[in-house]
C-alpha cells in the first residue's frame, strides 16, 4: 500500500489530521488496532475548548456538535461545604467551553471520512516504523487475519496514544521524557441521572478529597472521584460509589445527588508526561503519544487537537510547496503550549486532590487556595484564561532557535 501520510491511531488526533489533509487533497491511511465500534464507544473526555470547537466547525465537522454541545459559561468549585461559581464568560472576555463527548467527536470524524471514502484500517496493528531517516518510510502492519503488509509513505504521524509504538521509534539517544505519576486514580461513572448543577463542578473535601460532577446531557451525569490507584472496580458496587460521592458533597449548603442506573464505570491512573522532541526526521508525534496530562483541567483531547492544528498546515505546506520550514518548527511550536497546559493540569490537580502523608495544614492550604481562586479577580482570570484554552503558538521559529534534532532531511 502507498500513501502520502501514514497515520497511526484513530483517536481524535489521527482522525482529525486525516480529515484536514483530505480537505486539501492529501491522501492518508489511518491504521487502528481496535474495531470501529470500540473506538466510537470509548468513553473519555467531554470538555472542548472554544479553539477546538472552532477548528472542528471550520473543518465542516460541526453539525451535531453545534446542535447537541452544551455551552458552559461558568464553572463551579465546592469546598468547605459551599458552592462558588467562576464566571468564565466575564473573566475570559466572552469565551466559554462546550461539553460534548469525545466519542461523539470521534464518531463525527469517522462518518465524514467514510463519506469521503477515506481509508481507515480498523483492527489493524502497526508493528514497526521502518526507514524513518530516509525519504521513503514504511509502516509494517498486521491485519486482523494475521496478514503482514507494509504501507509506504512520505510522512508518518504518530497519533497512537500513550501505549503506541511511534514514540519508541525515536532513538533513545535523542528522546527525552519527563514524567510524574500521581499517588491516586480517578474512579469515573456515567449515570442515567440528571446533573444537579448546570456546569462542571470541582469538589474538594479536606478529609475525603476530590470529586467532579460533569454531564453529557440533561439526563446523563458524568461523575468522578479520586481513589487509591490500586483500588479494584469490584470493590466499588454502585451504592458505595453514590455514598462516597455524597460524603464528599456534605456541607452547610445542601446538595443531594440524583441517583440513577450506572451505565459505565472505570478507574483511570493519573500521570503527567512529556516526550521531547515531538518529531524526528519524517515522524511527527501528536496527542497522547507525545504528552499526557491528568484529566483535572480537561485538557488531554484539546491538546491533541491543538497539535493537529499545527501539524496539518505544516504537512499541507510541505506537500504543496516542498518547504519543510513549518514541519521543522512543529516540535518547538507545540512544546511551548504543551508545557503551559502541563503546568495548568498539574496545578489544578495539586489544588484539588489530597496526597498521602499530608498534614491538616497542607489541606487547609488547599481550601485557602480555592478560596483565593474564587474570590480574587486576578486569580479567577488566570484560571479562566487557561480553562477556556490558551491561544495556539506562532510557528515562526527563527532558524537559530530551531531544535536541530527535529529537522526533517
Ligand atoms: P487516543 O484517543 O488514545 O487514540 C490513540 C489510538 O491509537 C490506537 N493505537 C494503535 N493503532 C494501531 N497500531 C498500534 N500499534 C496502536 N497503538 C495504539 C489506539 O487504539 C487508539 O485508538 O489518543 P489521541 O488521539 O492523542 O487523543 C487523546 C485523548 O483521547 C485524551 O487526551 C483525552 O481523552 C483525555 N481526557 C480529556 N481530554 C480533554 O480534552 N477534556 C476532557 O474533559 C478529558 N477528560 C480524559 C478525560 C481522559 C480520561 N481517561 C479515561 C484517560 C477524562 C478521562 C477519564
Ligand atoms: C468530563 O466531563 O468528562 C470532564 C470534565 C472536566 C474534567 C475532566 C473530565 O476536568
TrEMBL record:
Start and end residues of each FAD-binding domain: 3-345
Keyword Ribonucleoprotein applies: no
Coiled coil (UniProt feature): none
InterPro entries: FAD-bd (IPR002938), FAD/NAD-bd_sf (IPR036188), RIFMO-like (IPR050641)
Gene3D superfamilies, alphabetized: D-Amino Acid Oxidase, subunit A, domain 2, FAD/NAD(P)-binding domain
Keywords tagged on the record: FAD, Flavoprotein, Monooxygenase, Oxidoreductase
UniProt-recorded Gene Ontology molecular function terms: FAD binding; oxidoreductase activity, acting on paired donors, with incorporation or reduction of molecular oxygen, NAD(P)H as one donor, and incorporation of one atom of oxygen
Tagged with keyword Flavoprotein: yes
Protein name: p-hydroxybenzoate 3-monooxygenase
Organism whose genome encodes this protein: Eoetvoesiella caeni
Amino acid at each position: 500500500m502507498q500513501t502520502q501520510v501514514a497515520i497511526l491511531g484513530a483517536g481524535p488526533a489521527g482522525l482529525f489530521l486525516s480529515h484536514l489533509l483530505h480537505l486539501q487533497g492529501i491522501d492518508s491511511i489511518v491504521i487502528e488496532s481496535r474495531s470501529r465500534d470500540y473506538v466510537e464507544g470509548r468513553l473519555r473526555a467531554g470538555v472542548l475548548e472554544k479553539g477546538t470547537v472552532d477548528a472542528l466547525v471550520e473543518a465542516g465537522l460541526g453539525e451535531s456538535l453545534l446542535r447537541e454541545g452544551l455551552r458552559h459559561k461558568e464553572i463551579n468549585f465546592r469546598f468547605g461545604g459551599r458552592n462558588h461559581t467562576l464566571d468564565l464568560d466575564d473573566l475570559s472576555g466572552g469565551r466559554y467551553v462546550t461539553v460534548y463527548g469525545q466519542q461523539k467527536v470521534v464518531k463525527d470524524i469517522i462518518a465524514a471520512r467514510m463519506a469521503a471514502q477515506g481509508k481507515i484500517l480498523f483492527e489493524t496493528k502497526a508493528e514497526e516504523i521502518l526507514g524513518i531517516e530516509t525519504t521513503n518510510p514504511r509502516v509494517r502492519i498486521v491485519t486482523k487475519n494475521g496478514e503482514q503488509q507494509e504501507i509506504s509513505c512520505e510522512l508518518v504521524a504518530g497519533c497512537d496514544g500513550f501505549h503506541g509504538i511511534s514514540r519508541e521509534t525515536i532513538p533513545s539517544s535523542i528522546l527525552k521524557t519527563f514524567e510524574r505519576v500521581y499517588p491516586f486514580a480517578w474512579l469515573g461513572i456515567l449515570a442515567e441521572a440528571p446533573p444537579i448543577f448546570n456546569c462542571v463542578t470541582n469538589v474538594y473535601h479536606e478529609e475525603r478529597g476530590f470529586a467532579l460532577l460533569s454531564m453529557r446531557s440533561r439526563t446523563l451525569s458524568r461523575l468522578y472521584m479520586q481513589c487509591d490507584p490500586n483500588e479494584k472496580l469490584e470493590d466499588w458496587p454502585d451504592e458505595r460509589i453514590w455514598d462516597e460521592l455524597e460524603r464528599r458533597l456534605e456541607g452547610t449548603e445542601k446538595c443531594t445527588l440524583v441517583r440513577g442506573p450506572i451505565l459505565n464505570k472505570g478507574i483511570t491512573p493519573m500521570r503527567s508526561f512529556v516526550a521531547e522532541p515531538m518529531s524526528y526526521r519524517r515522524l511527527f508525534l501528536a496527542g497522547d503519544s507525545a504528552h499526557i496530562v491528568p484529566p483535572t483541567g480537561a485538557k488531554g483531547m484539546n491538546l491533541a487537537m491543538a497539535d493537529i492544528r499545527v501539524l496539518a498546515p505544516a504537512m499541507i505546506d510541505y506537500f504543496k510547496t516542498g518547504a519543510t520550514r513549518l514541519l521543522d518548527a512543529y516540535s518547538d511550536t507545540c512544546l511551548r503550549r504543551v508545557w503551559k497546559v502541563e503546568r495548568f493540569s498539574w496545578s489544578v490537580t495539586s489544588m484539588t486532590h489530597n496526597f498521602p502523608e499530608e498534614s491538616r495544614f497542607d489541606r487547609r492550604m488547599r481550601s485557602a487556595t480555592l478560596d483565593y481562586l474564587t474570590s480574587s479577580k486576578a486569580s479567577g482570570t488566570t484560571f479562566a484564561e487557561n480553562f477556556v484554552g490558551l491561544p495556539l503558538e506562532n510557528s515562526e521559529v527563527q532558524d537559530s532557535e530551531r531544535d536541530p534534532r527535529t529537522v526533517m532531511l
